[in-house]
Amino acid sequence: MPFQSVVVEPAELAKLAGAFDAAWVAVNSVNTVGGQQQKRARARLAGIILDLWRQDPAQALSASAVERFLASDQPH
Questions:
Q1: Distances in Å between the alpha carbon of 57 and those of 16, 42, 74?
Q2: How far from chain centre, in Å, is Cα 72?
Q3: Distance from the Cα of residue 43 to its chain's centroid
Q4: What's the CA gap between 9 and 47, in Å, rounded?
C-alpha cells in the first residue's frame, strides 16, 4: 500500500487510497506501466497525491494527480 507510512484519520487514508486507485487506472489507460517501472511509477504517483493533498485536501486528487503524473512523464 503506497500510504502505509502516512499518519492520518481512517477517512483521510481511505480518500488517499481511493484517489490513488482511480489515478492508477487512469494512468494505465493512457500508458500501461509494467515490469520494473511499475513500482517506481506507483511510488511517484503516490508522492504526487500526497503533495496535492498537503496543498489542498479538498481538491480533486485523482484528476490532478493524473494530470501532473502524465505531464512529468513527457519528454522535454
A1: 9, 20, 26
A2: 13
A3: 8
A4: 18
Reported as a single tens digit per residue, the pLDDT across 49-69 is 999 999 998 889 999 999 999
Provide CB contacts within 8 A for 30, sequence distance 6+: 70
Residue 63, SS3 per DSSP: helix
Whose CA is closest to 18, among 62, 60, 48, 70?
Answer: 62
Rounded Cα distance between 36 and 76, Å, is: 23
Distance CA 32, CA 73 (A): 12
Model confidence, pTM? 0.84
1-40 pLDDT tens trace: 566 667 778 888 899 999 999 999 999 888 777 778 888 8
Residue indicated by cell numbers 492508477: 24
